[in-house]
C-alpha cells in the first residue's frame, strides 16, 4: 500500500471494497497457532475453529414427553381399555420391556420401555393421578390405595385410545449421531455451548481472543475526570471503542491519550505494538494541518483514503512495524460506525466472533435525504411496530443521539431520497 501525499485528491473507495481490505488485513489472525482448547464456559463468545459432528444422538434414547403411562397403542383401540399397571419407569432408569395389556407409569424424560410406543398423560387416565408417596417418600404402586377419596387404586388404570408415537420423543429427533452439530466459525453463545454440553463434549477448540492496542489522539482531548480547560473536550472515543471492542471479544490495551505531536504518538505505538495483534487509532486522519496519525505513519505501509461513507469517510489502513493498523476518524459517531462497518465484520469473518449483526428491514417513520455517492449510516431507534425513528441528524459529533439509538440505519450509495414508510436495512446494536 502507498501513502497519499497530504492534500492529494483521493478517489473514494466503496464501503464493500474497504470492508474487504480490512478483512484481508486481519487474515494473519486466522492461523492454527492462534487457537486454544477451553472448557465450554470459558469459550463463551468465541468462534469455533472446526466443524463439530454429534458424537451421540439427541435424545440418546426414545423418552417420554409427559408424566403418564407408557403403553402399546394397539392395546388402546376404540374406546380405550383398562390396563394392568406394572412397575414404574422413573427418569434415569433402564426399564424392562412392556408386556402386552400393561401400562407402565413413566415420568418425563424416562426411557420408553421396549414394546411401548405411546405415552398417555396422567391427566387423561382414570384415576388421573399417581399415588401419593408415603411418609418415607416411597410410592406404593401395587397396593389398594385410597386416592383423595376419588378413586381406588386397584392395580389397573383406564386409558383412552391413543395414536402410536403420542408424547414419545424419538431417539435422534433433535440431532442424529454423526450429523453436523455446529459449523466452523460459529460464535459460541449460550445455546451453542448448551448443545455441546448436551452432546457430552466438555471442551472446545476456539480462536484466541485478539489483542488490540487502542490509541486516541488530539491536543484537545482529555480524560474524563480531569478539569476541562477552554478548548478541550473529554475523550469519548476511548471508552466508546473499548466498550465496543470488549463486547466483540477483543482484549483491549489502551495507551495514554496522544497529543498531536507525532513523536509522542510514535513512542506510544512503539511501546504498545509488540504485544498487539492490531492497532486502532482515532483522529488525525483527515485534511487538517496537524494530522498526527498521518504524520506518525509516514514511512509505514499505510494508506489514508476516503471511503464513500458518511460518517466515517476518512480512514487509514496498513501496518505499523508489521502490526495491522486501522486509523479511524476522530468524530465519535464516525469511530463507532467505522468499527461496526469494517472491524467488527472482519473479526466475525476471521475469528468467528463476534456473531455478525443481523440485518433487519424496517420502515422509516420520516423522510430522509442522503448524499448520492455515499453510503449513509444514520442512527435510529427501532420501534415495536417495526418502524424506525431517526435519532439526531447526520452530524458525526452527536454522541447523545447515538446513546439514544438501538440501530444503525443504512442508506446505500445511489439512494438520495426516502419517504416515510420506505423500507431500510437496520442493524441492531
Ligand atoms: N477539509 C476537510 N475537513 C474535514 C474533512 C474533509 O474531508 N475535509 N473530513 C471531516 C470528517 S468527515 C471527519 S470524520 C473528520 C475526521 O478528522 P480526523 O480523523 O482528523 O479527527 P480530528 O480532526 O482529530 O477530530 C475530529 C473531531 O472529533 C473530535 N474528537 C477527536 N478525538 C476525540 C475523542 N477521543 N473523543 C471525542 N471527540 C474526539 C475532535 O475534537 C473533532 O471535533 O474530519 C473532518 N474534517
Ligand atoms: O466521516 Mo466524518 O465521519 O462524516 O464526520
TrEMBL record:
Q: Which keywords describe this protein according to UniProt?
A: Magnesium, Metal-binding, Molybdenum, Molybdenum cofactor biosynthesis, Transferase
Domain of life, per UniProt, equals Bacteria
Pathway(s) where this gene product acts: Cofactor biosynthesis; molybdopterin biosynthesis
UniProt cross-references to InterPro entries, sorted A to Z: MoaB/Mog-like_dom_sf, MoaB/Mog_dom, MoeA-like, MoeA_C_domain_IV, MoeA_C_domain_IV_sf, MoeA_linker/N, MoeA_linker/N_sf
Q: Name one GO molecular function term.
A: molybdopterin molybdotransferase activity
Segments forming domain MoaB/Mog:
213-349
Question: What cofactors does the UniProt entry give for this protein?
Answer: Mg(2+)
Q: Which reaction does it catalyse?
A: adenylyl-molybdopterin + molybdate = Mo-molybdopterin + AMP + H(+)
SUPFAM superfamilies named in the record: MoeA C-terminal domain-like, MoeA N-terminal region -like, Molybdenum cofactor biosynthesis proteins
Which SMART domains does the annotation name? MoCF_biosynth (SM00852)
Identify the EC number(s): 2.10.1.1
Keyword Metal-binding included in the entry's annotation: yes
**What CDD domains does this protein's entry cite?**
MoeA
Record's family?
Belongs to the MoeA family.
> According to its UniProt entry, what is the function of this protein?
Catalyzes the insertion of molybdate into adenylated molybdopterin with the concomitant release of AMP.
Full protein name? Molybdopterin molybdenumtransferase
What is the organism of origin for this protein? Pseudarthrobacter defluvii
Which lineage do the record's taxonomy fields give for this organism? Answer: Bacteria, Bacillati, Actinomycetota, Actinomycetes, Micrococcales
Amino acid at each position: 500500500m502507498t501513502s497519499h501525499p497530504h492534500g492529494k485528491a483521493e478517489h473514494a473507495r466503496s464501503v464493500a471494497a474497504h470492508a474487504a481490505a480490512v478483512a484481508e488485513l486481519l487474515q494473519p489472525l486466522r492461523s492454527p497457532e492462534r487457537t486454544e482448547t477451553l472448557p465450554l464456559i470459558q469459550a463463551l463468545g468465541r468462534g469455533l475453529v472446526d466443524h463439530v459432528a454429534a458424537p451421540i444422538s439427541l435424545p440418546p434414547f426414545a423418552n417420554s414427553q409427559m408424566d403418564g403411562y407408557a403403553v402399546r397403542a394397539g392395546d388402546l383401540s376404540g374406546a380405550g381399555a383398562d390396563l394392568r399397571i406394572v412397575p414404574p419407569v422413573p427418569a434415569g432408569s433402564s426399564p424392562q420391556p412392556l408386556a402386552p395389556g400393561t401400562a407402565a407409569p413413566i415420568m418425563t424424560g424416562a426411557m420408553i420401555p421396549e414394546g411401548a410406543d405411546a405415552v398417555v398423560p396422567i391427566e387423561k387416565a382414570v384415576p388421573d393421578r399417581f399415588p401419593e408417596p408415603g411418609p418415607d417418600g416411597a410410592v406404593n404402586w401395587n397396593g389398594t390405595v385410597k386416592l383423595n377419596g376419588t378413586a381406588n387404586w386397584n392395580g389397573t388404570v383406564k386409558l383412552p385410545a391413543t395414536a402410536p408415537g403420542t408424547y414419545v420423543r424419538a431417539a435422534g429427533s433433535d440431532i442424529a449421531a454423526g450429523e453436523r452439530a455446529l459449523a466452523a466459525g460459529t460464535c459460541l453463545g449460550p445455546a451453542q455451548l448448551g448443545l455441546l454440553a448436551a452432546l457430552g463434549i466438555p471442551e472446545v477448540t476456539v480462536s484466541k481472543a485478539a489483542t488490540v492496542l487502542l490509541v486516541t489522539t488530539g491536543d484537545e482531548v482529555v480524560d474524563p475526570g480531569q478539569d476541562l480547560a477552554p478548548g478541550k473536550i473529554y475523550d469519548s472515543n476511548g471508552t466508546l471503542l473499548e466498550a465496543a471492542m470488549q463486547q466483540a471479544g477483543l482484549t483491549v490495551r489502551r495507551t495514554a491519550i496522544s497529543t498531536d505531536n507525532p513523536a509522542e504518538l510514535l513512542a506510544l505505538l512503539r511501546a504498545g505494538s509488540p504485544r498487539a495483534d492490531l492497532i486502532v487509532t482515532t483522529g488525525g486522519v483527515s485534511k487538517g494541518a496537524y494530522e498526527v496519525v498521518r504524520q506518525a505513519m509516514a514511512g509505514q505501509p499505510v494508506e489514508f483514503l476516503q471511503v464513500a461513507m458518511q460518517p466515517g469517510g476518512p480512514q487509514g489502513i496498513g501496518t505499523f512495524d508489521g502490526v495491522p493498523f486501522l486509523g479511524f476518524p476522530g468524530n465519535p459517531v464516525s469511530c463507532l460506525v467505522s468499527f461496526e462497518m469494517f472491524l467488527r465484520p472482519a473479526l466475525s469473518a476471521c475469528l468467528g466472533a463476534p456473531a455478525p449483526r443481523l440485518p433487519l428491514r424496517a420502515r422509516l417513520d420520516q423522510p430522509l435525504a442522503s448524499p448520492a455517492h455515499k453510503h449513509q449510516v444514520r442512527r435510529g431507534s427501532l420501534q415495536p411496530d417495526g418502524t424506525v425513528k431517526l435519532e439526531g441528524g447526520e452530524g458525526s459529533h452527536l454522541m447523545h443521539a447515538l446513546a439514544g439509538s438501538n440501530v444503525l440505519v443504512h442508506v446505500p450509495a445511489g439512494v438520495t431520497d426516502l419517504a416515510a414508510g420506505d423500507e431500510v436495512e437496520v442493524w441492531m446494536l
